[in-house]
Amino acid sequence: xxxxxxxxxxxxxxxxxxxxxxxxxxxxxxxxxxxxxxxxxxxxxxxxxxxxxxxxxxxxxxxxxxxxxxxxxxxxxxxxxxxxxxxxxxxxxxxxxxxxxxxxxxxxxxxxxxxxxxxxxxxxxxxxxxxxxxxxxxxxxxxxxxxxxxxxxxxxxxx
Length: 159
Known about the structure:
This protein is an alpha/beta fold. Helices cover 28% and strands 21% of the residues.
């Protein structure tokens, strides 16, 4: 890591606090989160820090069965060393797929994911369906914004 003008920077001058949003599956909510909170939407692949992409990563999936399974597959890929070296997984962001509570079977899957990594939950945000920012951001987004900005850094798992 290099320092530039009092702020930390990674390879190729990427700010050390920059974040890569990785979608575990299509429609996970990465684009909405990146627009709302900042960071780089790298799509459905792991970022390449040596090419200047942020090494701090939040993996995003929906709370549907398919979304949780996709998150688990991505975490397994990371565990097996199939992702670029030097990534700093800050956690998993689970975006509600519908308003309301999760069925027990999905709650159990979320618990399994939580046993391996920090999980941030984002509730259903109706305005995102039509591509608009929330008029009043839920408190979960406020906390996630602190994680993204680097002011609230959770316990991390180096990969």
